[in-house]
Amino acid sequence: MRFLSAIALFALWMVLSASYNVAHVALGAVVAIIVVWLSPKAAPNARRFSLTAAIAYVPWLFIRVLKSGFHVCGLILKPGLPIKPELIKHKTELSSDGELVVLGNSITLTPGTITVEVAAGELIVHAIDPSSQQDLVSGALDRKVGQLFTAKESG
Amino acid sequence: MTWLAIFIIAVGLFFLVVGSIGILRLPDVFSRAHALSLTDSLGAAFVLAGLAVYEGFTVNFLRIVVVLLLVYLMNPVISHATLRAAYRSGLRPSVREEK
To answer: What domain range is A130 assigned to?
Structure first.
């Protein structure tokens, strides 16, 4: 796992640096190894991130973002500005930090809903009109985010 | 390929313009943040995707993808931090009165 992190960091270095002579490539490799060596190990009870679920999640989220994007466009462009903003309390069964980060960021990325406050088991969400909240209230988003993280890593 | 890129960038510009109009029309900081998420998660995303298509598969393509990922990771964090600061300092969203 740490080896993969070093490879990923080195790949990022190669993409961002414009020069491919020996000195720069070697410097990138050394820095990648040092950064991974210095960074803390994952906590033993950390939940493992499922890559296949993540690959399925990204297009699903993007389609949601696109749909609600057009919806918010319609709201803004309509002459009467038919918005009905409100703060809603969203109860969630997700509790680990990783899950809450993905859930909160997904809510905020989607136009029409923004996470205002996060606590374990409860999020305060600002929604611009009732139809923006549907996926959230029905729990579809919670389930999808829950699938991203598989059972606890053993050991 | 160039025309596809132009089309994608035009879609992005549409979202950027609508987002700017939203910033002007919406009443308070909370609903204005929705216009902001429109410009970032769709406007900037489509403009960058159009540039990536125009560039073709080169090193610059990969760089644009990195920028795209960074925008998608940072935009919700910034919106959330702004609104949480507003909420904690006592601001509450304005509720529109029914006519």
So the answer is: 47-152
